[in-house]
UniProtKB/TrEMBL annotation:
Name of one Pfam family that matches: SBP_bac_5
Signal sequence bounds: 1-19
InterPro entries: Peptide/Ni-bd, SBP_5, SBP_5_CS, SBP_5_dom
Topology in the lipid bilayer: Lipid-anchor
Protein name: ABC transporter, substrate-binding protein, family 5
GO cellular component, one term: ATP-binding cassette (ABC) transporter complex
Subcellular location, record wording: Cell membrane
Organism: Limosilactobacillus coleohominis 101-4-CHN
SUPFAM superfamilies in alphabetical order: Periplasmic binding protein-like II
Length: 540
């Protein structure tokens, strides 16, 4: 879960009353922008970030060599110019802008990028997001501890030049998006000083982005601020002096805060979206986020292939999206969502070209369920379903629970909902039986979704192994294939994912926000799903 995403749905206030009131923009005089977040961030360490709340904090406070502009296009960040690409596409060399500073006044240097990449790959870091640097030369040996971090494919060529050496040729669009979305530097002095505590609170990090984080004391903290970073090279284009954030898990509370003008941006629920399609303060869009139902490969029932296939055929994803979520989310037709990757020859959408691979079939579901009962010698079975404790995820979990219990006589499904951070912890510990979770991609490439089930991937929560899938993905990503050859291999891998049913794709998530009519500059895109407050400003 590169970035665990909070989506929409739940119980809202009366839509008409909210729409009528609008947002007063009471903070205009002070210059402060007040916003909400639906879950608690976990860390300020980019190397340990896998979920959206932490990403949201870091988007405001860190900047890489490339970044997203206000229209979600990849542009120059700390790089002085576009990279020089050599060695048949395997070597990328960047020159840094001169005069870059951290929020404590230290100079940003090439060594800060080197230290960051090594920190990601170092097995001592225990990074759950190390796949973002896994394409660098010698990564496998470094990650296993059999080679020093200094052998990783990144080096400083002087104080202001940094070079990245990839083990294989990479698709250009993937590399650029990875630099923009993920590969941020760390102040190597602060990292050395704080060690494993780096990023555990706002005082345990320094910042090179538009804002510095203040008054965040760790994962249970519900309030903090982004304060304009006076050392940021682009500070003259940052209009908000301060952004105050509060974690607001209750939808009614968040919408009341917006209605009263106490916040100027907040995520909203499906009920609100349904009743307010003409509201000019409402902004909706699909994300590059797919929700899945995972099976624990170590559990007696969920590792049973007949049971997995039974569940695989049980759901009507369109019904889930249109009748339960009702927020613009789309029922999944396959493992890879629509809008992710395109055929390099024809421009056809990857998911559309693959066809409808995920279909409800009640007859097949019943047949597989009876086979599972026979395999296990049981007529009555109980399972636990793990989900986030947000309103939308509770509703989806209830739909899954109801559907499974109605279709499979003798099956009882219990639901456990937890705060986001606790859910993530149990994901990685494998402490679940059925697991409703998601993946938010930062690159327009089907491999990013398909690799979720690859052997050895830290976010392969099923712990299952599919050798055929592994081989197809390895061949597609070996750096020797043309774009068309690679695309065909990924389509084959996509079909293979559906063969074993290690997980069930459920829906592509939408996001909706209320943004005050007094604020401009906030945009949301499929691969950059959090607001960038550096572009926000009060309307004149």
């Amino acid at each position: 879960m590169n970035k665990k995403v909070v989506t929409l749905a739940g119980v809202a206030l009366t839509a008409m009353s909210l729409a009528a009131c609008g947002n007063s923009g009471k903070n205009k005089a002070s210059g402060d922008l007040n916003v909400t977040l639906k879950a608690n961030p976990v860390t300020l360490d980019p190397a340990k970030t896998i979920e959206t709340p932490s990403t949201s904090m870091q988007v405001q406070s860190f900047e890489g060599l490339l970044k997203y502009d206000k229209n979600n296009k990849v542009v120059l960040g700390e790089a002085a110019s576009q990279p020089t690409v050599t060695n048949d596409g395997k070597t990328w060399t960047f020159n840094l802008k001169k005069g870059l500073k951290w929020s404590n006044g230290d100079e940003v240097t090439a060594q800060d990028y080197v230290a960051s990449m090594r920190h990601w790959a170092d097995p001592k870091t225990k990074s759950q997001a190390a796949d973002k640097v896994s394409n660098l030369e010698n990564y496998d040996q470094v990650a296993k501890g059999s080679a020093p971090t200094s052998s990783l494919g990144v080096k400083a060529l002087g104080k202001y030049k940094v070079q990245f050496n990839f083990a294989k040729k990479q698709p250009t669009v993937n590399v650029r998006n990875n630099f923009a979305a993920n590969l941020k530097p760390v102040n190597h002095k602060v990292l050395a000083k704080e060690g494993s505590k780096y990023g555990s609170s706002s005082s345990k990090a320094v910042y090179n982005g538009p804002f510095k984080v203040t008054n965040w004391n760790g994962g249970s903290d519900d309030e903090w601020s982004y304060v304009k970073n006076e050392h940021y090279y682009g500070k003259k284009n940052v209009h908000m002096k301060k952004v105050n954030v509060q974690v607001t898990k209750d939808n009614n509370t968040a919408q009341n805060l917006f209605k009263s003008g106490k916040v100027q941006e907040t995520a909203v629920t499906a009920d609100y979206v349904k009743g307010n399609k003409g509201n000019k303060e409402l902004h909706t869009s699909l994300m590059a986020t797919q929700y899945y139902l995972y099976f624990n490969g170590q559990n007696e029932l969920t590792k049973n292939e007949n049971f997995r296939q039974a569940v695989n055929y049980a759901f009507n994803n369109n019904q889930l999206a249109k009748k339960v979520l009702q927020d613009g989310s789309v029922g999944a037709t396959g493992w890879v969502p629509e809008g992710d990757m395109k055929n390099p020859k024809t421009g056809e959408d990857f998911a559309k070209e693959a066809g409808h691979l995920q279909k409800q079939n009640k007859q097949k579901a019943q047949s597989y369920w009876k086979a599972a009962q026979k395999d296990l010698g049981k007529k009555q079975m109980t399972l636990n379903l793990l989900a986030d404790n947000t309103d939308d995820q509770k509703q989806v979990a209830e739909y899954l629970q109801s559907t499974l219990q109605k279709q499979f006589k003798g099956l009882k499904v219990e639901v456990t909902t937890l705060p986001h951070a606790q859910h993530v912890s149990r994901d990685f510990a494998g402490k679940f039986e059925l697991n409703l979770t998601d993946w938010n991609s930062s690159v327009p490439d089907a491999s990013d979704f398909l690799s979720l089930l690859k052997t050895g991937n830290k976010v392969n929560f099923t712990n299952n192994t599919d050798e055929k899938l592994d081989n197809l993905l390895n061949e597609a990503n070996d750096g020797t294939k043309s774009a068309s050859e690679r695309y065909k291999l990924l389509q084959q891998a996509n079909k293979q994912v559906h063969t074993n049913a290690d997980g069930v794709p459920m829906y592509t998530a939408a996001q909706a926000h209320l943004v005050s009519k007094h604020v401009t500059g906030l945009n949301y895109g499929p691969f950059n799903t959090v607001a960038q407050y550096q572009y926000a400003q009060w309307k004149k």
